[in-house]
Amino acid sequence: MKIKEILQNSPLPQAEIQILLSHVLEKDRSFLFANPDQNLAPEIINRLNKLLSRRAKNEPIQYILKSAKFYGLDFYVDKRVLIPRPETEELVSEAIKHFLQKPSRDHGKGFNPFPDTYRIIDVGTGSGNIAISLAKSLPKEVEIVAIDISPSALEVASYNARVHGVGERINLIQGNLLHPLRKNGSKASANLIVSNLPYISEHFYLALEADIKDHEPKLALVGGPTGLELYHRLFLEAKDVLKPGGKIIYELDGRIKSHTPRFT
Ligand SMILES: C[S@@+](CC[C@H](N)C(=O)[O-])C[C@H]1O[C@@H](n2cnc3c(N)ncnc32)[C@H](O)[C@@H]1O
C-alpha cells in the first residue's frame, strides 16, 4: 500500500493519520507529502494498524505517542498524568511576569550578599510541565517545589525533569495540597504558588468526551462535587505558605471564574 492510499482512505482526520504514519515511519510529516507513491512495508502497516485501533478506542494521540508539547518543550506523558493543555502555557507566562516584576533584591544599595531566595511552589504538578517550563525559563537561583498527591504522576514528573536537565532544581514532593510544606514547618516561604488543580465537578465529569473521561486520570480532572473544593482548600492553606506580597496564579475554567487573589 502506498502512503497516499493510507492518507486518502483513513477514517481519521488528516492531521491525526499524518502524525501516526510519520511516527511509525520515524520521519517528519513533510516526508509523506514528498513521497506519496512510496510503498509501505507490511511491518509498517502492521504497526500503524495497532496505533489506529488504539485511536479508534479514543485513546488520545499524545498517550499513543507518549509525548506532548508544552511551552516549546516535549514532555513524556502516559495515562498516569493529565496531558498538558495549550491554555496552561498562559499560567507559565504569568508566573514569569510575576518573577520579573519582583522588587529589586538589593534595594538600590548595590551588591547584596544575602539575597532573598525566590521560591515557587507548583501544586498538582502532574507531568511536571509547569515546574519544568519555569525552571528552564528562570535563573537557577529560583527554588522550585512541585507537589502532587499521586506518586505515579511524580514518577513521570521526575523523568521529565531529568530529561530536561532540571532534575536537581526541582524538589518533587508527594502530598496533599500544601500539607508537606506546613509539616516541614517552612512557613511563609513562597513568593509564588502556581497551580492547575482539578476543577471539574462530578456532574460535568460524566459528560466529558470519551478521549478524556476514558483515558486521563480522574484524580487529575475532578476537584470535588462542585469542582472548586480543592482550590478552596488551597487558598486557605496558602495564607500560611506565601510571603507577604506573594501571589497564587491558578487555572480555572473561564466559565466558572478566573482571578488571581493576592495575600499581603
Ligand atoms: C489538572 S492536573 C494538572 C497537571 C499539570 N500541572 C498540568 O497543568 O498539566 C491536576 C494534578 O493535581 C493532582 N492532584 C489532585 N488532587 C491533589 C491534591 N489534593 N494535592 C496535590 N495534588 C493533587 C493530580 O494528581 C494531577 O496531577
UniProtKB/TrEMBL annotation:
Start and end residues of each Release factor glutamine methyltransferase N-terminal domain: 5-65
Gene Ontology biological-process annotations: methylation
Keywords: Methyltransferase, S-adenosyl-L-methionine, Transferase
Pfam families: Methyltransf_31, PrmC_N
Superkingdom of origin organism: Bacteria
Annotated GO MF terms: protein methyltransferase activity
Methyltransferase domain segment(s): 118-250
PANTHER family assigned: HEMK METHYLTRANSFERASE, MTRF1L RELEASE FACTOR GLUTAMINE METHYLTRANSFERASE
Descriptive protein name: Protein-(Glutamine-N5) methyltransferase, release factor-specific
Species of provenance: Candidatus Woykebacteria bacterium RIFCSPHIGHO2_02_FULL_43_16b
Organism lineage string: Bacteria, Candidatus Woykeibacteriota
